[in-house]
Structure of Molybdopterin-guanine dinucleotide biosynthesis protein MobB:
Amino acid sequence: MPDKQSFPIIQVIGYKNSGKTTMMNRLIRYASDQGLRTASLKHHGHSDSLEPMHSGTDSFQHHESGAFLTGVEGGGSLQLEFGKGLEVSLRQLINIYENFSPNLLLVEGYKREVYPKILMARTNEDFELVHEIANIRAVVCWEKDMESSIDVPVFHIETIEDHLGELIYLCKEV
Amino acid sequence: MPDKQSFPIIQVIGYKNSGKTTMMNRLIRYASDQGLRTASLKHHGHSDSLEPMHSGTDSFQHHESGAFLTGVEGGGSLQLEFGKGLEVSLRQLINIYENFSPNLLLVEGYKREVYPKILMARTNEDFELVHEIANIRAVVCWEKDMESSIDVPVFHIETIEDHLGELIYLCKEV
């Protein structure tokens, strides 16, 4: 498998309720509107399993029968589900995405990973992550007085809609 | 991408209500119980789209925002969904499955494809598919008088539970 993907990856990280989900959707919409084939990936940060995709469907039955991986394809859609016990790295996930030739992958979470990141900082404490986490290219803060001495561009949540292209540009490296 | 997968593929085909789904689950259970890493794929044979994986979830929002591919990973599970308009061949799907090193892939549908097949024949009319479809290795019939002159092993649905290993063996080719 390749160790280097052919598309830029941008991670959106931050603590719970820091606005990661909204930011993901803003970036997805902006990039898609620019004509980029945009993919997303979210880390489900709970130790419990995901809710099964289709309780009661054939795929669900296949899992119950013992399949470790099930898929259903048709009508222009494809759904794949990997059952419990999967151990997969972000690198492996990216290799899977590579099959579908995205122009951009937006990732929510996985903050210990190495890709360019946007940090969502609701509080001053959140802001401290900028010193702990690798490869933060931009910070989106909720408080006016957060524009500090750090060497990373800081944006304010209220006006972020005007800076989405800049955020993507700051993170873009292939 | 490789043109030849490293694992056997078995297709289960037949008309509606011929018992494909039950047969899929029997084969998945049998193979899994044998210790095989068993994957499944079902062709959704309707022209309408699949029901969205998680209406109301973040993944669903990402699709609404324009992402062509969304994923959520955590707690040992992974769910991937490809939005509307995807055109993907069985060959491409198999290449994706290859990333996860299955020992066996059971496929429901895609009867025009080339892989070894089990034909489910509820009626004598169904049985005629054996002359139209490539690479049928076994027929599972519902009527006693179906054991005909064809050159393919025929099994009866009532006793199929005792012949699952044989069915897999007949279809196995990598």
